[in-house]
Amino acid sequence: MFYNLVYKFLGTDYSFLNVLKYVTFRSICAFLIAFCLVLLIGNKFIFFLRSHQRNGQPIRDDGPRTHLDTKKGIPTMGGMLIIFAVILGTLLLGDLTNTWLWLCLGIFIGFGLIGAVDDYRKVSKNDYHGMPGKTKFLLQSLVAMVCCFISIKLCNFPGNTGIFIPVFKEFCIDLGYFFIIWAMFVTVGSSNAVNLTDGLDGLAMGPVIISSICLAIIAYLTGNTIFAEYLHMQYVPGMSEVCVFLSALVGASLGFMWFNAPPAKVFMGDTGSIAIGGVLGFISVISKHEFIYALIGGVFVLETISVIIQVLYYKATGKRVFLMAPIHHHFEKKGWSEATVVFRFWIISMVLGIIGLALLKVR
């Protein structure tokens, strides 16, 4: 909004405004705005949530016993704070003529609303089950389908319906309209994967921040003709502008961690985890780096696979592979402290992020 309002002055006597032409500068500003906004209104927002959530987020009765003592009464739906800060930072510093930016906001807000309804059901009924899984999945799929269909219709460029395989130069599998199904799978899958990871104070936020930074770098490179050609990446016109959104997400997430650090004052709930996971998956699709994202977000993948293995093995044998799924609870059951699990998962996420970025050069 601010960028578009002052755009007509760029290149005139107001030469100091020319710095706004650079997406890198606007990304830094979006980061700072989102970060400062969360810090400024965080305490008041938490107080608001506490006053409207008598019992806080319902805790699983089959989970680690320590959670019933340490996490009882903590308010949820803190993801609304993240969503608000990201939207404001993006609208102020982003180029609002960019279709990718609006699609990211559409996924982010749409999935956030689904998560908010889920959280509200949990809080109002004091039941951790919330919205039925099938209903949630159908709503997520619908939002993803609409945004993915719009993306291939309005953002028409060579390879827009193709899947690009890492390491191989210009190797592309064109799916045509079946690409929508693939995009839905990645978007919804990522959304639920981040949701599963969000089980300990700060556990999901670390990998979210690392994944967002890596995807911002990828978005900048794929949106730049020179870098895209040099690295043999698919050039995606206008993709660099997504850096503004991702930078705002990093800023809002860091600000939220100020209040979510152990012991947490607030949980982001499904409102935040479903929205963040969905938009990260969607960005990986439109930037043509879904497989790299699967590596960078390996912690999310690991958490999801652990649940799938646990469920399938239990149905087949009546026994469990892990002491509890998702896998972060397994390590808690084995005696790891919550802080140990969180920090070690962060370390794994950092290493995977570095490997993922390194693979960009390996073609």
Overview of this protein structure:
With 363 residues, this protein is mainly alpha-helical. Helix content is 66%, strand content 2%. Strands 1-2 form a two-stranded antiparallel sheet. The relative contact order is 0.15. The model has no long low-confidence stretch (mean pLDDT 88).
Key features of this structure:
single chain; 363 residues; mainly alpha; two-stranded antiparallel sheet; 15 helices; 2 strands; 2% strand; globular
Structural class: mainly alpha
Mean pLDDT over the residues: 88
Question: Number of helical runs?
Answer: 15
Please state roughly what percent of the residues sit in beta strands, choosing from under 5%, 5-15%, 15-25%, 25-35%, 35-45% or over 45%.
under 5%
Main beta sheet = 2 strands, antiparallel
Q: Trace the largest sheet across and list its strands.
A: 1-2
Low-confidence stretches: none
Give the total of beta strands.
2
Q: What is the topology?
A:
Elements: H1 2-6, H2 23-52, H3 65-70, H4 79-93, H5 99-125, H6 133-154, E1 162-164, E2 172-174, H7 179-197, H8 205-222, H9 225-230, H10 242-260, H11 269-286, H12 290-296, H13 298-317, H14 327-333, H15 338-358
Antiparallel strand pairs: 1-2
Helix pairs in contact: 2-4, 2-10, 4-5, 4-10, 4-11, 5-6, 5-11, 6-7, 7-11, 7-13, 8-10, 8-11, 8-15, 12-13, 12-15
